[in-house]
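For consistency, the fold was encoded as C-alpha cells, as this record shows:
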Amino acid sequence: MNYAEMEIDREVRLAAFAFLTEQIAKCGEVIPYNVLSRDFFFKGVRVPLLGPQGIFKPQILPEMPLSITTAPEIPGKPRPYDDRPAEQGVMIYRYRGTDPFHHDNVRSLG
C-alpha cells in the first residue's frame, strides 16, 4: 500500500469505530444486527460493516478486510473460529481451523 492508501485505510477504520462507539452509546454493549446492517458513510461513500460471508473487504478499503463480528458460542456446537476476548475489550481473531491457507482464511487478489 502506498501512503495515500494507508491514510484512507486508517481514516475509514477510525470512522468505523467512531460509528460503533456511537451505536454502543445508543444501544448498549450489544449492537443489534439491524443497526450494523445499515452501514455508515465515510466522506459520502457508503461503507458496509457486514458482508454476506462474515469477513470481507469493503470497496473503499484498498487492501485489507474489515471485520467486526465473530461466531457466537452455542453450547454443544463447535465454532469455526477460536476468537477470544483479550484485555481492554480487544478481540483476538483466529483463522478457521489450523490451516492459514484454508479458503476462508485467504482472499484472492485477482
Notes: The first strand starts at residue 40 and ends at 42. The longest helix spans residues 3-27. Residues 70-110 form one domain. The chain has two domains: 3-62, 70-110.
